[in-house]
Structures
1.
Amino acid sequence: GHEGSGADPGVLAACRAGLERLERAGAVLAELDLPELESLYAVNSAILQMEASAFHVRWLRKRYSDYGDVARPRLLAGFAYGAHSYLSAQRLRSVLRERCEGVFERVDVLATPTAPTTAPRLGEAGNTRFTSPFNAFGWPAASVPVGDVEGLPVGLQIAGRPWDEITVLRAAGALK
């Protein structure tokens, strides 16, 4: 589906192997396209930046140099948004959530690569492109290791309908 696009070939191969394990455990696989998830990446990033900036403003003023070279610019960027932007992002998230919740009339869980690449090396920032839609919606999700590429782990993300953590955990457990 859409969320797998842009992932490294080795990551996709490991995730396909994970999906085959799910299928052997009894899952019926169906490919879906949810283009709304791509929009959610931007919406989630904006909301997170604005909320984090508001939370950290007091400490940024007092302890600016204590923030690292990755966190500091992200927090400062959050101040570029206005209150109207925050409300607009919240409204858009609600619209996208309504559009996507219908997917659970057809499937019990969604599976995507956890990230477009392997896990990052220590000290490197990870890529949250594929996890952020489910964070934005507040849907339960689990990342399960399904292989590795050049010694670095690859995760398959299982996401489910709101308040249905047990189904997500059952599907994740079937990958062991």
2.
Amino acid sequence: GGYYSSALPEHLRNLPLYRRGMSDEEKLELAKLYDERSRWACTPMGSPDSKGNLRLRGPAITERVRCCNVPKSMRRPRGHKRPTTSCTPGECGCGITFTVPIDDWSWDWQWPLYGTTRWLKSYDRRPAVESTNAEIRTNRFRFHRGCVRVKGETRTAILLAFMLAALNMAMTADWFGTDWLELMDAETPPLKLVRRSKATVAKHRRTEGPPG
């Protein structure tokens, strides 16, 4: 998913992939390795040009690593956040800029870099959105063509806000395993979260369309 300098250490070249069922702790531990590898990555110099060509620069130019072939980078303090490469004097990929045509980078390159903590946070946003779509369209409500019978973006947005508010109420009640009215009257929140069994999940309150 990225372009790296040849100075990339061997132990960071073939990292394991994320797999289904990993715990949050396991994901964060793996992300640390990808974050470490990202220091050797070439970074973009702005957006692609009018022809789709992408300009990249080596990691020593941005001083993410210290390389003997880039004197400016060697003046930066040594540390785990700015490792020193094993390059020998001469030409290397740490201090160069290069252009990649769209036919090459569009297939594999992605930013943020795959596996990093930044990528992980961005990736988790999509499952969250898809889960919300599934809840309002299938699991709890029946949001389909014809449900919204008002005209104009403002009116539609207001109506959708009421639908999402009702969805949050239903999801909160199911999560705590109690009725919403009981949650409203409770002086303190329930002490224990309730994860529903499959039988309970199958009994979601459903309507022919969103409430309202």
